[in-house]
Backbone:
């Protein structure tokens, strides 16, 4: 019989505020203590979804999210589930797509974060949303289990978020303004809402249409076809048309992505049509775009598989927290004082450092790519760099490694306002911190902690040191996807 301390059950909620729809999911997470861990480290042994909320349209007021109406709708979901807010241990609130660009999105994040206790509350930019939806859809697990490349696309109301997954690891992301609610029309086919990308598509199709214009069935299909063709150009490695390039929100996927065999998969609201799950019409381009995508894929014999989660891919992951304790071989520069800690909700950036290509330039490039994947701005945003056994404690190698980090953070170092936070899964935190302080001109606060394993999609809180300024309590808030 297991000790009560070895197994814990916690309740979790995931909330997704998207371009067109918002919804939530309640889960029960079973945490089991790792018997090999030297710290209070738990892993998620089981996730049981106990309530899938209704999918409702994201309430808008002019060009803003209607916070009052949204809060009321979410509260109704709590009531339907029979769960009080005080009974929820943890969770994640993610604002995605066009909603993340609304004028009051940041205000909404702060409100939800303050009211939600230990929740992760984040505005997901185009690259980060690609990461979230790839995990939540189940495409990551499929790629890992089948040892293959998947190009996964989450097609929502305003954007299509793309992730290239090799053997369970995301290597590239991209995003294009293709979605089902770029154009919305009434029951009598009068255009009632137009997003900028919807206007561009009308112009590309040669249609002289605007708000309050009458749109025909043929025009709807032509608009959806134009959008579908652009998306397929991106996810199959074709040369991008001028129009497709205009729709791109990020850089395009590199050509090497398409050199080996791969399969496509889809999630998001439009996937419900691609996989014949629904035929409902919601007064937008959704059904047209989904049906045309399916026809184009089949007619061109482009292989694709069905992802386990579709419209709920982003929300299906809720937030889980585990209190971990760092190793004792950490480094804290003298500038780190009582006022500096605790730090809360720090996003984790995980560069893919290769020991085969180990030089300052390569390390700097990988850090830059990782920041881009999460839509973080170096010099502006606070983040922590997490590394998985990147370097041995050989002094020359440590110098190369630290100089690579410094090269990747020019604005952070120039402004001296943000701390440099490093996290390692091995016991080299103190070595790296000391070499950085000794061998570079960095004057920022440096906190280099070790023996904590982190992954992208994770946020951490770092508390004040508890043992001789060497051991730090860390709350890990990771998005649970599968």
Residues:
């Amino acid at each position: 019989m297991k000790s009560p301390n070895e197994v814990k059950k916690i309740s979790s909620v995931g909330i997704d505020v998207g371009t067109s729809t918002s919804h939530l999911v309640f889960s029960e997470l079973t945490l089991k203590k790792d018997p090999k861990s030297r710290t209070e480290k738990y892993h998620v042994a089981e996730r049981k979804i106990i309530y899938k909320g209704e999918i409702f349209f994201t309430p808008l007021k002019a060009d803003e999210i209607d916070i009052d109406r949204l809060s009321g709708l979410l509260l109704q979901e709590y009531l339907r589930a029979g769960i009080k807010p005080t009974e929820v241990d943890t969770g994640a609130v993610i604002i995605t797509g066009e909603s993340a660009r609304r004028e009051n999105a940041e205000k909404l994040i702060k409100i939800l974060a303050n009211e939600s206790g230990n929740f992760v509350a984040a505005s997901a930019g185009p690259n980060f949303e690609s990461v979230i939806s790839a995990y939540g859809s189940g495409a990551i697990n499929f790629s890992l289990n089948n040892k293959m490349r998947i190009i996964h696309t989450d097609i929502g109301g305003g954007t299509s978020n793309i992730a290239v997954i090799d053997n369970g690891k995301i290597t590239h992301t991209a995003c294009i303004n293709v979605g089902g609610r770029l154009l919305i029309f009434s029951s009598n086919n009068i255009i009632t809402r137009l997003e900028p990308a919807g206007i561009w598509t009308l112009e590309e199709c040669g249609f002289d249409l605007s708000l309050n214009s009458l749109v025909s069935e043929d025009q709807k299909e032509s608009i959806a076809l134009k959008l579908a063709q652009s998306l397929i150009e991106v996810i199959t490695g074709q040369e991008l048309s001028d129009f497709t390039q205009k729709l791109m929100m990020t850089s395009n996927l590199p050509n090497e992505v398409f050199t080996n065999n791969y399969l496509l998969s889809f999630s998001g609201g439009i996937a419900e049509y691609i996989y014949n799950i629904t035929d409902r019409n919601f007064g937008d381009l959704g059904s047209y775009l989904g049906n045309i995508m399916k026809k184009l894929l089949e007619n061109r014999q482009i292989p694709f598989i069905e992802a386990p989660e579709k419209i709920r891919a982003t929300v299906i992951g809720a937030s889980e927290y585990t209190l971990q304790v760092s190793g004792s071989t950490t480094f804290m520069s003298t500038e780190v004082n009582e006022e500096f800690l605790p730090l809360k909700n720090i996003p984790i950036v995980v560069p893919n450092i290769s020991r085969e290509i180990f030089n300052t330039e390569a390390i700097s490039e990988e850090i830059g790519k990782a920041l881009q994947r999460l839509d973080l701005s170096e010099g502006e945003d606070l983040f922590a760099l997490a590394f998985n056994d990147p370097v041995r404690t050989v002094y020359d190698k440590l110098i190369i490694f630290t100089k690579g980090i410094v090269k990747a953070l020019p604005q952070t170092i120039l402004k001296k306002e943000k701390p440099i936070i490093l996290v390692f899964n091995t016991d080299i935190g103190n070595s790296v911190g000391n070499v950085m302080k000794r061998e570079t001109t960095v004057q920022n606060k440096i906190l280099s902690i070790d023996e904590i394993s982190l992954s992208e999609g994770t946020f951490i809180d770092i508390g004040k040191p508890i043992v001789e300024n060497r051991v730090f309590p860390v709350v890990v808030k990771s998005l649970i996807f599968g």
